[in-house]
Write a structure and sequence with these properties.
Blueprint lengths: L1 E7 L8 E4 L13 E2 L2 E2 L1 E5 L6 H8 L2 H5 L21 E9 L2 E11 L2 E9 L2 E7 L4 E4 L18 H7 L7 H14 L1 E5 L6 E3 L7 H7 L3 H10 L6 E6 L2 E8 L2 E4 H4 L2 H13 L7 E5 L7 H12 L5 E5 L16 E5 L2 E4 H4 L10 H6 L6
Parallel strand pairs: 5-17, 5-18, 11-16, 16-17
Antiparallel strand pairs: 1-2, 1-6, 3-4, 6-7, 7-8, 8-9, 9-10, 11-12, 13-14, 14-15, 18-19
Helix pairs in contact: 5-8
Length: 366
């Protein structure tokens, strides 16, 4: 799981922005949101332009050079903070059963690395300086690897993983789990129609994906549980697989009758049926077109996934309740800092506290 992330000199973050998911309390409620003393499901609040979306872009910068999965470089056109000329620096800390992996790197642009370092269980195991074209890898099985990347525009970490047969030991297991974790990260936004980063490649229509996985009836039942009653049928129109709704003797395209909220739900459901294999999902403005009950239902679906870490951004304070999550799983980004509600106040928060009223009254302001 992702334990900690920080970024410096990225977009509107001039100084260190630190997301620490290990700062959990001993609450005895809503424990499905915590796994191994790390936040598994988090909701992030913040005013417009506070940096909620930029947090997601920064967090997923790692996929740009470590994976071959879907990328959207348009998100990274403006990269470093406009007031600085120094490199952008990223830091990740991951927790696995066998131990921890820390990964730090510097970039001068989205596609140009300056430095990479990896520590496994606090021991430096890999480093590379792209300006000096010098590096070292101390993973067993990689001793004979050529470490000169002078003519290769590639991450040293990715190069090591792709060009070595590592020995079987605890350190190498952590390294492999780290690569697999990053390879299975997923970002998407409810504001965009199937705009995503990570996890896989290509541009598949949502309806086609649901149809080809045999999930039409399950999607119909998913909508029904949320109070949306459609009789769904798969059809092929001009060679394209599409979802239609049947009303008596009439059949109409799903998108011609669905509200924006319902269209947003097909986006969520399309990704939901993939999420069992996703390591971490970041959903920007996840409930932009949902009413409160839909938003609650979406978070509850994510809570059911035992192995998928979820980070969601939202403005909706009506779902800010201890019946859903806990004060250490609700976070606020403000003035370039992220703090959980439990961290932002000296007050001892209990399940009976009304978090929404406290938030609106400024109890968690920086």
């Amino acid at each position: 799981m992702l334990k900690k992330f920080s970024v410096n000199n990225f977009k509107n973050f001039k100084d260190d922005l630190v997301l620490d998911l290990s700062k959990v309390n001993n609450y005895e409620f809503s424990n499905m949101a915590i796994r191994n003393k790390i936040v598994k499901t988090a909701l992030i609040y913040g005013e417009n332009a506070s940096g909620k979306s930029n947090l997601g872009y920064g967090l997923f910068d790692i996929i740009l050079h470590l994976t071959d999965k879907e990328k959207n470089l348009n998100f990274y056109r403006l990269y470093g903070h406009l007031e600085n000329d120094r490199p952008t620096e990223f830091y990740y800390e991951f927790q696995f059963e066998e131990g921890t992996l820390k990964y730090r790197y510097k970039k001068c642009s989205a596609q140009e690395l300056l430095e990479e370092k990896i520590w496994i269980n606090d021991k430096l195991c890999l480093w590379y300086d792209f300006e000096q074209h010098k590096g070292e890898v101390l993973l067993e099985g990689a001793q004979t690897l050529n470490t000169d990347l002078t003519e290769k525009n590639i991450s040293f970490v990715k190069y090591v993983f792709n060009n070595t047969v590592l020995s079987k030991n605890e350190t190498n297991t952590i390294f492999t789990k780290f690569i697999n974790f990053v390879d299975n990260m997923l970002w998407f936004s409810s504001l965009e129609r199937n705009a995503y980063q990570g996890y896989f490649n290509g541009d598949e229509s949502l309806a086609k994906g649901i149809i080809e996985q045999g999930r039409v009836e399950q999607f119909q039942e998913f909508l029904r549980k949320l109070g949306i009653y459609y009789e769904l049928i798969p059809k092929e129109v001009e060679g394209q697989k599409q979802l239609y709704c049947r009303f008596g003797n009439k059949e109409v395209n799903f998108y011609s009758v669905a509200s924006r909220g319902t269209c947003s739900l097909i986006l969520f459901y399309y990704w939901l049926i993939q999420l069992e294999n996703v390591s971490l999902v970041f959903i920007d403005e996840f409930d932009a077109f949902y009413h409160d009950n839909l938003a609650l239902a979406v978070v509850e679906e994510l809570l059911k996934l035992p192995n998928t870490q979820s980070i969601l951004t939202t403005h909706n304070t009506d779902i800010m309740t201890n019946d859903l999550l806990r004060p250490d799983c609700y976070l606020r980004i403000q003035n370039g800092k992220i703090k959980s509600f439990s961290e932002a106040t000296p007050k001892e928060l209990r399940k009976a506290h009304n978090l929404q009223k406290m938030y609106n009254a400024g109890a968690f302001d920086d």
